[in-house]
Amino acid sequence: MSLSYWFEESRKQQDQERPRMESKEAAAAAQAEEDLLRDFERILHDDPLIDEVGFLHPTQFHSLLVDSTDKSTSQYFWCVDHKLAVSSSILPDLYRAARRAHSNATLNPSSSPSASDAALIMTHSKALLILCADLLTAWNSRKMVLSTNFNLSHLKDELRLCALILSYSPKNESTWSHRRWVIKNLAQHLQDMPELIDKESLLVKDMAEKSKMNYRAWRHRCWLIPYMKTKQVLDELNKSKKWAELHVADNCSFHYRRSLLLALLDGAANREDSLICQSEAYLMWKEELRWNETLIRRYQGRESLWNHRRFLSQWWVQHLLSCEETSLSNESLADLFLSQEIHLLSDCLGAPGDEFGETRVQVELAALYILWISEQDAAVKGKVEERLKSVGSLKEVLARACPEKSRLWTHLLHC
Amino acid sequence: EKSTAVVDGASLTKRSEEEEAMGEQGELAAEKHVRYIVTAEKKDSFESLVMEHLRASGAYWGLTTLDLLHKLHAVDAAEVVDWIMSCYHPESGGFGGNVGHDPHVLYTLSAVQVLCLFDRLDVLDADKIADYITGLQNEDGSFSGDIWGEVDTRFSYISICTLSLLHRLHKINVEKAVEYIVSCKNLDGGFGAMPGGESHAGQIFCCVGALAITGSLHHIDRDLLGWWLCERQCRDGGLNGRPEKLADVCYSWWVLSSLIIIDRVHWIDKEKLAKFILNCQ
Questions:
Q1: Which site from A242, B156, B176, B267 is most exposed, i.e. has the minimal number of CB atoms within 10 Å?
Q2: Which of A130, A146, A162 is the last residue of a domain?
């Protein structure tokens, strides 16, 4: 079904269903609203590759018209080079018209709508969602139409619509949810997911650049992990490293890395390539710990980095404890690792203060980190306390470093 | 007698909200808040229009606030009840966020909660609503938000809370529901939106609340989770939702309620929090 067919159907629908008016004024107002909708939907139809939308204040919009060398499409819409601008003055009217049209089109919901009904639903819901992506009902009507039969091209159009909306509403839950529904549909029919996953990962990366710590975007990226084979998990770890380095305060990106590492561990237990997963996991973990430490030393007082270390050392210590190897000095590897961590703590404790107070935060986080490790199990606690003697008891360190958290650690240390 | 979800001998909703309203009562501009809520009704601005999909939830938030401030009588109960029921879909048993909007568990809970406020559960076909929710439980114990299948731990809490309020919790597979929630527990003690999801104060509230209602709090390591939650308190006394984020007053609810349920609220500085909340007025 071509888009022009859909558009024609929409025009016929509007001609047929204009409500009866009680007064000329009301009729004129309704007509004006419908004209707006018609213009809007025509623009959306004429350019299916729109990749940016902006709602501009009338004065901004006016200057756009004045500056533009191209003819504007109307008084309230401007669309050039796939960039669409809408004057915010007409948004309420446009929204109401789209709502009405969509309501009329979905009056008699059916699991197998006729071609013309489907066309109207898709046209009106698109207009509506670009204005307000939160409208679950509009997303649902699209799912209803798309469910009638599998159409690869239509599903790809959905991904494009979602990407458009996310470009200016990167946190929109309904859009991310719809996107997942589309992908689940695609996954059922596509043999090869890697390319799709790569594109999704890239999309999230772009979104993440524009809106930091975007929970919904990163949740989407984590949601893809079960679809990944081991090789892709390793690729993602490598590819996302640079971004994480440049955004050390973004907890989401480190959580993503933790999810990938856990997927490797999971693979080590469950997949056919379990031996590869196991050795890769070990190497990745070791490297991650080293890399994390350099970042901690470079960027003072970053909670995400220390949280990442809590996670890493938790598994690492357990892994080392189960290792039979010893180091060159005949110390167990676990002991050696714990000594290194305490060395990191004392470096932080000894660092000179700075004007931004970041050193103080660094000290607090370092102390809480040591508390975290020591709480893992009794054996580790003993080893930590032993090695900590040169610095002070754990209680003394915490009292110095984070007095504000005293309620927390006095409880944990039973003091 | 208002019916509220009862949890380990403490009323989940009522006590948490009382703790929220603690602090310098004299400084809370109650009258102004009441006026804001009562007049924040129908507006024709674009901003108002694009929020129409969640009006049922907005009604719950506003009305609960009025109730806490002992001003619930400022609205016409019958009018509210009628409006809520106009959002009901009798064929499915669910509620939409507004008239003519598709049903979803989000708004089903809000509708039931509003009716609880007015003690009007009698207008509901409780069995039908329970069936709607039961139908949304998946094999792994999780819950979808609606027929289109999106799964989120929020929906677990919502489903469990709704059924609890309707005294029909036994209609779902509670054991499986709990199993699913526990599978969303992270190594830092927190919970995310799905298994392996990043710990988030809002999701944590949902999981902790659901476990509380189903008598399953023993699955939680209270010290571990309490630790994560008390680290949400920022220098300015406010609470954030995740590491490195700024404090936001909404987390006063999510984090605080969770701390109260697991009995670790003494781990944060209450006075500083109260001051922060009043500064947001």
A1: A242
A2: A146
The neighbour count for residue A296, using CB atoms within 10 Å, is: 23
Q: Residue A85 domain-assigned?
A: yes
Q: How many CB pairs under 8 A join A and B?
A: 99
pTM as predicted: 0.90
CA distance B206 to A36: 43
The mean of the pLDDT values for chain B is 90
CA B267 to CA A357: how far, in whole Å?
Answer: 23
Q: Which residues of B touch A250 (CB under 8 A)?
A: 244
Place of tokens 């915010």: A88
Predicted pLDDT at B23: 42
Q: Do B148 and A143 touch (CB under 8 A)?
A: yes
Kindly report, residue by residue over A13-22, the tens digit of the pLDDT.
Answer: 555 555 544 5
List the beta bridge partners of residue A78.
A85
- 3 state SS of A167: helix
Given the structure tokens 């027929």, which residue do they identify?
Answer: B147
- Look up the ipTM and state it: 0.89
Q: What angle do CA B166, B169, B174 make, to 5 degrees?
A: 160
Residues B228 and A288 sit within 8 Å (Cβ to Cβ): no
Condensed to tens digits (0 to 9), the pLDDT of residues A77-93 reads 999 899 999 999 999 99
Domain limits for position A63: 28-146
Sequence-distant (≥ 6) Cβ neighbours of residue A235 within 8 angstroms: none
Domain boundary among A102, A131, A146: A146
Residue B153: name the closest of B194, B108, B182, B183 by CA.
B194
Residues of A in contact with B223 (CB under 8 A): 411-412
Nearest chain A residue to B103 by CA distance is A137
Residue-wise pLDDT for A200-221, tens only, equals 999 999 999 889 999 999 999 9
